[in-house]
Design a protein that fits this description.
Number of helices: 4
CATH class: Mainly Alpha
Strand order of the largest sheet: 1-3-2
Strand content: 5-15%
CATH architecture: Orthogonal Bundle
Number of strands: 3
Shape: elongated
């Protein structure tokens, strides 16, 4: 992956007013991916919207990291169940 595609974590945190330690904690809990290149840390562009959503939960709604982790797990599970429902619905259409 090219460095141009990655977002420098410190630059993002300064620009968005998010603590670097918060982003590191998200990474430590496996909620986002941080890539290190030549001792500089980058946020994967695919995870940027997730970082923004989790930061809003934390800073705007005062949800702690444990709560964010639980909510993220539940949202992922809900999305998987919705995908299963769509798949089953498609299979049922074959029998109509």
């Amino acid at each position: 992956m090219e460095n141009e595609e990655l977002i420098a974590m410190e630059v993002y945190c300064d620009h968005e007013g998010v603590e670097v330690s918060f982003v590191e904690a998200l990474h430590d809990r496996g909620l986002i991916r941080i890539t290190t290149v030549k001792e500089q840390r980058f946020i994967d562009p695919e995870h940027l919207s997730r970082v923004e959503k989790l930061a809003r939960m934390h800073y705007d709604l005062d949800i702690n990291l444990e709560g964010i982790e639980a909510i993220s797990h539940l949202l992922e599970r809900m999305e998987a169940l919705q995908q299963d429902m769509r798949s089953l619905s498609e299979r049922l259409r074959l029998y109509e």
